[in-house]
Amino acid sequence: MQDFTRRALLQGGTALAATGALTGPALFDFARAWAADSPWKAEPGAKLTVMRWKRFVPQEDEAFNAMVAAFKTATGTEMNVFSESFEDVQPKASVAANTGSGLDLAWGLHTLPQLFPTKVLKMNDVADYLGKKYGGWTDAAAKTCKLGDDWLGIPVATNGGYMTYRKSATDKAGFKEFPKDFPGFLEMCKALKANNTPAGFALGHASGDGNSWLHWVLWGHGAYTVDQNDKVIINSPETAKALEYCKALYETFIPGTPSWNDSSNNKAYLAGELYCTANGISIYVGAKTDPTKKELTEDTYHALWPVGPIGKPTELQLALPILAFNFTKYPNAAKAFIAFMLEKENYEKWLSGAQGYLTQTLNAYETAPVWTADPKNAVFAQASKRTLPASGIGTVGEKAATAIADFIVVDMFANYCTGTKDVKGSMAEAERQLKRIYR
Question: By its UniProt entry, which SUPFAM superfamilies does this protein fall under (predicted)?
């Protein structure tokens, strides 16, 4: 765990200044003034243990650490923060929920708060405070955290994932512009393979990458796990078409994608083995900060997801909601910390530190400086508004969150693409698993 202090922050001040973040006295002066006026006063002797997703962009880490240190100094709250991979956040949050101990706050993926609706501290007051102050919440972000009229958590940000590609390779393949539809995208991937500059997307249990692109393929064909009434409808002609399309794509991929996790495509792209994938901006940021990868940086571009036969965007971007457990001894401190994170003086600088890896969920931040700092960042600004909730057209809740966490859609596609099952068998297995959840 990391313990955040004023001294630690000041030691990192030079790095933080490069992101434009408030540092030193200015940051602490703001934090003290905010704490004095905050609707939530941290309990005396408050101590918060916070689990968050693992950092991918160092400058985001610096900016986040800055706000944590400032909050600690301003409120007197002891802050113990540790990070876990996307794959490990949900299991560890489940342990805390089941035992009623170990964590005060958990910050993870998709609809994490919906997994524990009876174990979370309601956040209605925090959501109202921030929404009124900063132009309201984007639709999918709000759905991620709401159950009826109650906010089970706060949608801090969206990790927008878009097409990341080497323009020299797509140009050579005959595509001067990135394809905007499914047939064009498949043809491009075939041409990339023929030129030995392949694409690749995770078919393994990658909580972020795998779920994102495979739901995009599924939804793009008008297929869904459940309908508006939560009736399981995965076994359908539309799903069969999605499976066939995905297998055609898979046959163009770099070898090994069925075993990929969320970091595999980053490594392959930066190693010069992969020429098109879907990812957050972390690949580009990683190249941009490496002096040996100047050519790769200049050759890397981003594009929106192509649109499927359904005729409209069907993106699944990664919601990053934070929750506080209702067994915390310090509910006021927990709410204060969450609200503090999303205040303008912190949030815009944090977005700048993330360099496009994170996208706002509050409408007022659409004009944050990060989106014009580099033209290649601009695509990612749209993530929170273009995404569907993780439930697709179904109800956002514990069942939808479970289906995502259990990789049902990912495994259905992987079973067919790798030859483990045929189309009917892959759909039937997914249907069986979904019906067990949606009883």
Answer: Periplasmic binding protein-like II (SSF53850)
pLDDT at 7: 39
Strand order of the β-sheet with 276-279 is: 276-279, 162-166, 300-303
**Alpha-helix runs per DSSP H in 156-305:** 167-172, 182-194, 209-220, 237-250, 264-270, 282-288, 294-299
Distance of CA 234 to the CA centre of its chain: 24
Sign of CA dihedral 342, 344, 347, 351: positive
Rg of the chain, C-alpha, whole Å = 22
**What pLDDT does residue 200 have?**
98
246 CB neighbour count, 10 Å cutoff: 23
The domain in which residue 40 lies consists of 2-159+318-380
Same domain, 71 and 61: yes
Q: Are residues 220 and 296 in the same domain?
A: yes
83: its two tokens: 């990070």
How many CA atoms lie less than 13 Å away from 126 in the CB half-sphere? 31
Looking at the 3D structure of the chain, how many domains does it have? Answer: 2
* Side-chain-facing half-sphere of 50: CA atoms under 13 Å: 29
Residues 255, 184: Cα–Cα separation, whole Å: 22
Strands 300-303 and 162-166, by their bridges, are antiparallel
Could you tell me the two tokens for 366?
């659409």
Q: What is the mean pLDDT of each run of 10 residues along the chain (439 residues)?
A: 42 41 72 95 97 87 93 96 90 96 94 92 98 96 93 96 97 98 98 98 92 97 97 98 98 97 94 96 92 97 97 93 98 98 95 93 96 94 92 89 92 98 98 97
**Alpha-carbon span 161 to 150, nearest angstrom:** 28
